[in-house]
Amino acid sequence: MGIAIALLATFSILFFININDLLAQLAQFQLWLLLPIVGLKLINWILRYLEWHYFLHIINVHPVLRGETRPPSSEHQPATIRVQDSFILWMASLPFALSPGKIAEVLKALILKNMTQTPMARSTPIIFAERLIDGIAVVIIVGAVAALMPNAIFSAEVLDTNDIRTVIIAITAFMIGLITAAQFKPIAYFLIDAIGRVPLLSRFQAEIRTLYDSSNELTKLRHLLNTTLFGLGAYFSDCIGFYLILLGLGESPSATLFAQATFILGFSVIISAISAMPGGAGGREVTIAVMLSSIVGMSKDAVGAGVLLIGIFQIWLGVVVGILIGLAFYRRLFPPTLFQNIGQTAKLVARDHSFSASQHIQSEQV
User: Fold this and answer.
1) For the chain, what are the domain ranges?
2) pLDDT in tens, 153-164
3) Where are the alpha helices (DSSP H) in the chain?
4) pLDDT (tens digit, 9 = 90+) per residue, 10-25?
5) pTM of the entire predicted model
């Protein structure tokens, strides 16, 4: 469903421009630029994988070049995962980002649990930490461009400068709030203890505590500083790729164009992040189209080609590669034991929920 909506958003540009004009614009694209653009996307994936690799160490799952993927053999011996398995898992999860609210990315934690017996409550916060690092990196890049070259961005009369600044400030404040809240242990433990006194929620108290402790560790300043460097490199490589796309569509190379490409792509990521649609579908495309037209001054046909190409290289290349890797290593990622564990977990949750509910009803009757 999420993939279908994202596809519709990407190719909806075809409804607003003449298809022959779009094809003519694409035919003029300098094909030799495809090689560095794809190369930059590979760099993006490698840097984002290194974030995942770093976060695994924090939750005591150690990626190893030699050895095997296995659960912890003792209390003092951490779980290990082969770098090959870790990379396959991360790449195969790329299509999950197109699910509503990116909820399918929880599958990554479930597969990791099946491989290493790492509790999902400990590994799930990595998914949110990755999104947090993405947000921090994008806000830094967008803010830096806006501060260093404001005339390249805010000279367009069509754009409401105050609205753009408000969105950036609001997102920044929200992320700071999340990081700050995750570091206040006394308040968090007080709330977790309160949850433990609620009959229907008490059985989840241990998992919630593990979830919080993992989130607390992942968002410590020293870890955020290290992983933000990976995030900055990853998104900067995407910005260079977008700049090359604009060059391929006939724009003249300049520092101003590079600043505009960087700001537009970064701001579209912010808008897609706060969009309720799967993978930010719609918000990203509209933002890029409006800004290419108003800031860069591109023609309608060139804007359509730009939206289509950046959608292919920023989203669909990863989706296709992820699906192919998932199919190639299906048995490794989705063995029968994984589905057995899912079924057993669902039965236990249903049974415990029914038992807790009956206890609550009986206590109310007494």
Assistant:
1) 2-183+219-334
2) 877 665 667 778
3) 2-11, 19-27, 34-58, 83-92, 106-116, 120-148, 150-153, 161-182, 185-196, 205-218, 221-248, 255-274, 283-291, 300-311, 317-328, 330-333, 336-365
4) 666 667 777 888 888 8
5) 0.85
